[in-house]
Structure formats: structure tokens, C-alpha cells
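Morning!

This is the sequence you dropped in the shared folder:
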Amino acid sequence: MNIKITGSGSYIPTEIVSNKNFAEHVFLNDDGTPFPHPNDVVAEKFLEITGILERRYVTDDLNTSDIATIAARKAIEDSKIDPETLDYLIFAHNFGDVKKGAIQGDMLPSLASKVKHNLRIKNPKCVAYDMLFGCPGWVEGFIQATAFIKAGMAKKCLVIGAETLSRVVDSHDRDSMIYSDGAGATIVEATADDGGILAHESATFSYDEANYLYFGKSFNTTHNPDVRYIKMYGRKIYEFALSNVPKAMKECLDNSGTDINQLKKILIHQANEKMDEAIVQRFYKLYDQKMPEGIMPMSIHKLGNSSVATIPTLYDSMVKGEIENQELNKGDVIMFASVGAGMNVNAIVYRM
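The structure's back. C-alpha cells below.
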């Protein structure tokens, strides 16, 4: 028995927001003082560091559970399974449903229950729950689905990663330019087919690092201080990621019994192009090798950072042949790797 992704689907929002859309924003320092550089300089430096040209936002009528439902339906259709045979529905997100203009997230009922309801699944034995694990949530959901199947508790699982970060960003914070919306879903099941998960690693660093990403007030001191937005200590996250993610990736690859030269692609969380490149370069340096050209497919340039959705949407795009000069073929050994709030790190080595 092997455990594989047998179907995938995604939802890429229709609202395209380019860097030029931020030209009229009033960016401030964290103490509320005016930011010293004009917005065109901010945008230029932002592109140089992150690689983001544009990002996608959901339309006002959609919430996180809505776009997750769309992605889930596509994954179910792609896998050709009967949704009534699903044993688990694992939904990775971070902020619940945040309606346009609202100041409060909605996680009652859980978003997993909302999606199960939307899919009209009647089977009560299909257990639906939410996964709050920062940006690595979809990868961790995949790991948990694998554990359930290995334990004999499940045969088929639906693992979703979806987020609408555009609803929880402070427009006066430059970091708001990074974030975007999206949803990706996968069917994970036991199969007699070759391949599947070869190894996985997970870790939570919270002793000193728990609050590197946090909920904080707007940089605009005239705003209601009780309304909170996603905030981060970018430099600390960068240093943390470069120190810890390559090590987790190496441990995962070593445990898989796979030679690094067999690794075809690394699907890394689309956080920041410069950071992702540095992570993968350091990973290869641990093997005294240079990072191969084309090993790290990227979608961040057009889609931004949609947190838990970046890896499953990237995977879906690749298996559907939608990324230029990048493809996944049966038998390829690939790696999923992510880092995010918590601070959490994880990785999977997987044979297509």
C-alpha cells in the first residue's frame, strides 16, 4: 500500500492587483510616522526582494470557505472518487471566514464543516476539522492524512489549504503588499500504485520564535486599536527560515533514502522569492552542491503569498501543465517544504 495524491484542484481569485495599485497607499512606520520613501521606490525595492509583480484577491462576495469549496470540488472531480467515501476532510487556514469590511473572523462552525456542508456530503463518518498551523498547514494536513491512512483509520482524505489574507492586512503596512488569496485541494488516498510519501518532517519552534508572526494594530494610530491585522518581524523570519528550513529538508531527504541528485523539483512555500532561493541554495550547500537551475518552480510573481494555498495551488498548476517550462512526471521525486507562523517548519519527500 502506498499513499498518494490522486486528484487536485485549485481556485485562483479573479481580482488582479498589481504593484501599481499601491501607488496611492499611505505607508507608515510601526510607530505611525510617515515612511521616508516615495511609493515608487517602495514598489521597486519590494519587487527586487519578493519577486511579486501582482497578486490575486477574492471578490467581495466570496469567503475562505467558498473558495475552498470550489477547489475541493475540482479535486474530487479530478480524482473521480465518490465524496461520500471520504474519511477525513482536513482544512488548513489561519483566520477563518472574514467577510469584506468585517472586523471579526468567523470559525463557527469550523470551515471544514462549512465545506463538507457545501459539498453536500451526508456521511457522518467523514470527519471534518480545521488545521491552524500557519503557512505550512496544507503540508501538515497531508502528513496527518498519511498518518490516518497508515493507522488504518482512513482510506481517503480531502486536504485543503485556503486563505483570504487580503481581508486581514493593514493597508498602511508595506508588508501588506506580499499577501494574497487562493485555495488548493488534494485527495490523498491509499493506492496500489507506485510512489507516494517517502518521508516527512515537522517541527514547532516557539520558545523564542512564537511571535515572529502575530496579530497587531494598524500602523495608523488613528485607527481603532482593537481591530487587528497580520504583522510580522520580517528580518527575524528570514534568518529563522534560512537557519532551520534547509536542515529540515535535509533530514527529510536523508530519511527518505533518496539521493539528492534524484530530486526533480522542490515545491516550496511561496513566501518571498529571495528568501526561497536562499533556503534552497543553503539546502544544496549542505550536500556540497550548487542549486540546480529550474529546481524551484515559482508562482509568487503573479499570485503573491497566499499562505497555506501556495503549495497546493502550485502543485495543481504543475500537474495540469499550466506553468511554463515546469512539469511533473510519474516517477519524479519531489519535495514539499514550508515555514510559517508558530514558528512551524515541515517537509515531505514524495514520489509522483
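Headline: The radius of gyration is 20 Å.

More detail when I'm at my desk.
O.
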